[in-house]
Design a protein that fits this description.
The protein has helices at residues 3-19, 93-102, and strands spanning 55-61, 73-78, 83-86, 107-109. By secondary structure, it is of the alpha+beta class. Strands 3-2-1-4 form a four-stranded mixed sheet, covered by helices on one side.
Length: 110
């Protein structure tokens, strides 16, 4: 096989390897540590109920975030500063994440 063909095949493989891992992540995925400041609330319970108020921020609480509350939840803060602990399995959540992403509101991990 000529050099140029081998080089092209290797370049294609390298491109695929670099691009594929990003395909499974949400467009607005930022696994950055939380900024210093007041500690956000700990979710001890979650709800699948739809939130109809405008969302201004989103935090993701993992099961390993706090020792005293081991629950996976998304903390959605509304415009009137109310925190809602949402179950990650809520059926409406992916659609809401898409809408938030269009407004450049991304969930940050705690």
């Amino acid at each position: 096989m000529p050099f140029s063909v081998r080089f092209g095949v290797r370049l294609a493989y390298l491109t695929i390897l670099l691009i594929l891992p990003e395909q499974g992540r949400p467009q607005c995925y930022h696994p950055t540590p939380r900024a210093p400041g007041p500690t956000p609330p700990c979710c001890t319970g979650v709800s699948k109920a739809r939130i109809n108020e405008p969302i201004v921020s989103c935090l993701e609480q993992r099961q390993s975030t706090f020792r005293h509350c081991r629950m996976h939840a998304f903390i959605l803060t509304t415009a009137n500063k109310t925190d809602h602990c949402v179950d990650p399995a809520a059926t409406w959540l992916p659609t809401r994440f898409e809408r938030l992403g269009r407004r450049q509101i991304c969930c940050r991990q705690l």
